[in-house]
Fold Gas vesicle protein.
Amino acid sequence: MPAQRRVRPRRPAEQDAEPGEPVEDQRPEDEETPRSRASGLSAGSAGATGQRHIVELTGRQSEGITLVKPEGDGWVVNVEVVEDRRIPSSGDVLALYQVELDGEGELRSYRRLRRYRRGSGDQGEGG
């Protein structure tokens, strides 16, 4: 199935066409990635950047990224880390951190949302 193409009006800087003549946008819609409104930072880059900030700030090993969400002109990223290793690993203490990034990936703020034992069941990210 061929990709759908969108048509947008020409910008004033596009001087090779008559005013009002449409220009085809060659990017298929399914190739776009979410980006914050003010920058070209993609969701994947925002997640990796947030994870890197938490690892650097806490000195702890990351278990993974649990949320990447555009917010305002930046991003909110939630990262799960191992706070205390235990034997067996089902006794590990994990923590969920939230990172706020600006549109360029710079750290605005971070905070620990909660701590919990691995395998204790998902009680929601805020609770």
In short: The longest strand covers residues 74-84. The helical segments are 43-58.
